[in-house]
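INFO batch 0412 | record 1 of 1 | parsing
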Amino acid sequence: MYTQPSAPFEKKGKIRKTTKEGAGMTAKGVKEYRKKNPGSKLKTAVTGKVKKGSKAWKRRKSFCARSKGWTGERGRAARRRWKC
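INFO prediction complete | emitting tokens
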């Protein structure tokens, strides 16, 4: 018996990461979003080691500042993934 998934991250070829995986969108999800929204500058999370002052470092710093008030489970997981 087939049951329809209740959330996008439960589909085959998922577009979102679960909270255990760190929340946020997968590279496939970002690609799909950008296809549906031409001109979008959406990018995946900065998760690796970055040099201070680099573009990636600035993106991380900006995200961490913006998401400071996120207290939900997915928000906390995303902040962990971004290393905030």
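INFO post-check: Helices lie at 27-36, 55-66, 73-81.
INFO record closed
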